[in-house]
Amino acid sequence: MARWGLVIDLDRCTGCQACVVACKHENNVPFSTPETARGGRLMTWLQLVAADLPGRPTASALPLMCQQCDRPPCTDVCPTSATYLNPEGIVAQIYPRCIGCRYCTNACPYAVKVFNWTAPDWPDAMAPMRNPDVSLRPKGVVETCTFCHHRLIAARERARAAGREIAPDDYVPACVATCPAEAMVFGDLSDPHSEVAALAGSPRAFRWMEELGTQPKVIYLREGE
Amino acid sequence: MRRLVPPVLVALAVAGLWILALPAAPVDQPIAFNHARHAAVACAVCHRGAETAARAGIPQSNVCTRCHATAPDRSVSARAWSDVAAGRPIAWRQVTQVPEHVMFSHRRHTSLAQLACASCHGDAAARVTPFGAPATRIAMTTCLSCHTREGASEDCAACHR
Question: How far is Cα B107 from Cα B147, in angstroms, rounded to an integer?
Fold first, then answer.
């Protein structure tokens, strides 16, 4: 069984935020206004945060999304198992099962789980741009990055139609597909020949807040070495 | 008066439960479509996406007029048919439906998994009246019991999106 992982090379990342836009667009993430953002209710699954990394004179811009932990604190506290670690290592969120208690948003040390305080407000002009492969989340549920899991289901269907096994390029999340600097690499960590597995073993590799023992499957590569 | 109240309440409660237990009222379709009369036609001629896409699709006027140059029968009023002949959209109502949070692909199940339409929709070719309600209610247990049998995915995230 695959263990999906993502490597982000901070040396290559230019901080352009194309991934942030691609993610919003791909996953029908509702719009936010500066007011909602100031109120701490910004809806986004992927954000550039300032991070003080050892040996760097200034803060680095860290593209931060769900870290897809192998030991996710969020699933431990979910009273309904709406969020759980699936067999392929993706931390999923089953919206109709979610009761909106927000234990998971509080348990997550990365603060990447967001709560729908209101029903999504989609301007009519934007409706045709919604991705039909992803649902619109109702008010009162928590949502977060799923490594674009719907793309995995579609990729399996395409591979099956072509009569072959799924290949590494078949399944790539929107952020990775968009990154103009090619700073993001996605793939199967359990495959020793995969590019992600090789990069994860690089001396530059580190995991954000790894000291907490969450065992993320998002791996960063340090800058400037 | 006092003695009358309990029997009246009981009668009302029984009537209420009776109404709740009745099957949901069938949906009216704009044309009394008869599948059995079209049994010689392959499903995919009308339901174009049934083997190639996620959604099967319900055929519109342009499909009907390929075979019907004129109104087919008295079962369709001249007025209803003039709309079809003019190529105006037919307001079919889709009755078999999964909620928005569920992902379902026909192609995956029909041309790829080789399942017959009847395994989910009953014998459509034998129907003489339009689908007023789904032939079989497609609930989560319907999906799951087949997935268990066929060894397909039972992971929540496979179906929920």
Answer: 16
Structure tokens at B154: 């039972």
Positions in chain B whose pLDDT score sits under 50: none
Residue among A90, A136, A153 minimizing CB distance to B100: A136
Give the model confidence (pLDDT) of B19-58 as tens digits: 555 555 566 888 889 999 999 999 999 999 999 999 999 9
Q: How many domains does chain B have?
A: 1
pLDDT, tens digit, for every residue of A59-115?
999 999 999 999 999 999 999 999 999 999 999 999 999 999 999 999 999 999 999
In a domain, B125, yes or no: yes
Partners of B16 in the beta sheet?
none
Considering CB atoms only, which of B101, B108, B157 is closest to A86? B157
What is the arithmetic mean of pLDDT over A141-152? 98
Mean of the per-residue pLDDT values of chain A:
95
Flag whether B52 is in a domain. Answer: yes
pLDDT for residue A201 is more than 60: yes
Per the domain annotation, does B8 fall within a domain? no
- Distance (Å, whole) CA A90 – CA A69: 8
Is the Cβ of A163 closer than 8 Å to some Cβ of chain B?
no
Look at chain A and count its residues.
225
From the candidate CATH numbers 3.30.70.20, 3.40.47.10, 3.40.50.2300, 3.40.50.300, the one assigned to the domain spanning A4-221: 3.30.70.20
Interchain pair B108, A86: CB under 8 A: no
Tokens of B47: 């339901």
Q: Which two tokens stand for residue A161?
A: 């139609």
Whole-number Cα distances in Å, A121 to A34, A124, A125: 15, 9, 12
Among A residues 124-143, those touching chain B with beta carbons less than 8 Å apart: 133-136
Q: Do A86 and B160 touch (CB under 8 A)?
A: no
Which token pair is A72?
A: 């996710």
Nearest CA in chain B to A28: B161
Chain B residues with CB under 8 Å of A150 CB are: 103, 161
Task: Look up the domain containing B85 and give its range.
Answer: 29-159
Q: Which residues of B touch A (CB under 8 A)?
A: 99-101, 103, 105, 107-108, 111-112, 155-158, 160-161
Reported ipTM exceeds the 0.85 cut = yes
B118 within some domain: yes
